[in-house]
Specification:
Number of helices: 10
Distance between the termini: 59 Å
Order of helices and strands: HHEEEEEHHHHEHEEHEEHHEE
Number of strands: 12
Strand order of the largest sheet: 2-1-5-4-3
Strand content: 15-25%
Shape: rod-shaped
């Protein structure tokens, strides 16, 4: 079942229920009003009959007075002439007097051979419907008592319901015929309106279905009205943006990784091919095998970094944030990096402006510091200094690592955290870098809520600044 059909069914069902309740209330109200009108007429006729018999109350000597009056010639209270009520009169009233056993004592002439229904089970004044001669009647049965309160008989007054029954029947027929017709018309109109309402949704669906891997750059046209459909289209476009970005990153990652792995594999394969062509001396074998081992180790480091980056980017690792002394972490990292600095006759200097306690993951923080310090040593000239400063700024713990090496061109600073990005191939080939260290550092910083920025001037050096979130007590 389509969405437009379900919408039409739900709306039509709810409306049908409401219409049924309204029609029922209208019919019930009209029915009550009609019968109330007849009951008022019956009460008036009872009062008029009792007044003609000079009876002040139906509960005192009414039966005897009415019996003496004789209903065959009931007087009209408005004059002294006698009037015979006939069936030809408009809305004629029928009056009948019965004793306590239900035997007819007197009745109006318009009843002829007919008699009104008597219900002995009704003790008080009762209004009810009955049939007389095939015609529906509304009648009232009034008990008559003597001065001691004993029921001596009943006064029964009736009026025909023919006109009222015609009105009620016509109203009922109108409701029965119009109700399903209105429901069918309402269903058709609702389905048409629902179809026009969801037409933009179908357009969005068609556009989304047409977007494939080869056409991820296509976007859904936003509607003019900033309504729910606008939000839906904007959300889908945002999703497509993220998918396209992720797809491009993965595509670039695969291309870069294959390129990085292809080079050492080609070097190892070529070296071994040369070695097996003819016998050589032991020193040459040792030199070439050592070279191959270096390339394999380099390839192993690349694979380790790729796996590490994949783990962190897939959010499979949750940092264990604890309170750490930043100075102690820097001392440990500097001690491990000391052999690299000594090899280049460099000095690592740590300046502390104030004690700093940070909220971070112990292992992730030291890995970040190692990557940054390793890069600072790697791209600095021999005999230079790497400065590390940490303290507090604007209420946040900060740490800066500065080298005075070759620096990074300003135009290339926004790309230094991209995977496999290297400022130039000559730098990387000479130092053995893969362009993954800063990508891993940025990802680790994001996981811990640490902000990382870089400033650099070409031929003057580079500074990486870490801004930590405030450590909570």
């Amino acid at each position: 079942m389509s969405l437009r059909t379900r919408m039409a069914l739900y709306y039509t069902g709810a409306t049908a229920l409401l219409m049924a309740i309204v029609f029922f209330l209208i019919f019930f109200t009209v029915d009550r009003v009609v019968y109330s009108h007849f009951d008022d007429e019956l009460r008036h006729e009872v009062s008029e009959t009792l007044s003609e018999a000079h009876v002040q109350s139906r509960d005192v000597c009414a039966f005897g007075s009415l019996k003496e009056l004789g209903l065959d010639e009931v007087r009209d209270g408005r004059d002294e002439t006698h009037r015979i009520r006939t069936v030809a009169d408009i809305d004629p009233e029928f009056v009948q007097l019965v004793d306590s056993a239900g035997h007819v004592v007197s009745k109006t002439a318009n009843l002829a051979r007919n008699v009104l229904s008597f219900e002995p089970s009704y003790s008080g004044v009762r209004y009810f419907n009955t049939m007389m001669g095939g015609s529906a009647m509304r009648q009232v049965q009034v008990p008559l008592a003597d001065r001691q309160g004993r029921i001596e008989g009943y006064l029964i007054v009736a009026v025909p319901l023919k006109s009222a029954m015609i009105v009620l029947r016509d109203l009922k027929n109108i409701v029965i015929i119009s109700f399903p017709l209105l429901i069918l018309i309402l269903f058709g109109l609702t389905r048409l309106i629902a179809g026009r309402s969801i037409q933009p949704v179908e357009e969005v669906s068609s556009m989304a279905e047409s977007i494939t891997q080869e056409s991820l750059d296509r976007r859904i046209v936003l509607p003019q009205q900033r309504d729910e459909l606008y939000r839906l289209a904007s959300t889908i476009n945002g999703l497509l943006d993220r998918l396209q970005d992720a797809f491009q990153r993965e595509k670039q990652f695969t291309a870069d990784a294959s390129h990085e792995l292809r080079t050492p594999l080609a070097v190892v394969k070529g070296t071994l091919d040369v070695l097996v062509r003819k016998p050589r001396d032991v020193a040459h074998y040792e030199e070439r095998i050592s070279y191959c081992l270096d390339e394999l180790n380099r390839m192993a480091r690349l694979i380790d970094q790729l796996l590490m980056l994949a783990r962190y980017e897939n959010d499979r690792v949750t940092p264990k944030i604890v309170r750490l002394d930043l100075g102690e972490a820097l001392e440990r990292v500097a001690e491990r990096m000391e052999p690299l600095a000594v090899a280049k006759n460099m000095t690592i200097r740590i300046d502390r402006m104030a004690s700093a306690t940070v909220a971070a993951d112990h292992g992730m923080l030291e890995m970040m510091l190692e990557n940054l310090l390793s890069n600072a040593i790697k791209y600095s000239s021999e005999g230079s200094v790497v400065e590390i400063w940490y303290g507090s700024r604007a209420g946040h713990p900060v740490c800066a690592i500065t080298d005075y090496g070759i620096g990074i061109p300003e135009a290339k600073l926004p790309c230094v955290f991209d995977r496999f990005y290297r400022v130039d191939e000559s730098r990387s080939s000479g130092t053995g870098g893969f362009g993954l260290g800063l990508s891993i550092t940025r990802r680790l910083a994001d996981l811990q809520g640490i902000s990382i920025s870089v400033r650099s001037r070409e031929c003057h050096g580079t500074t990486f600044l870490l801004t930590f979130p405030q450590a909570r007590n």
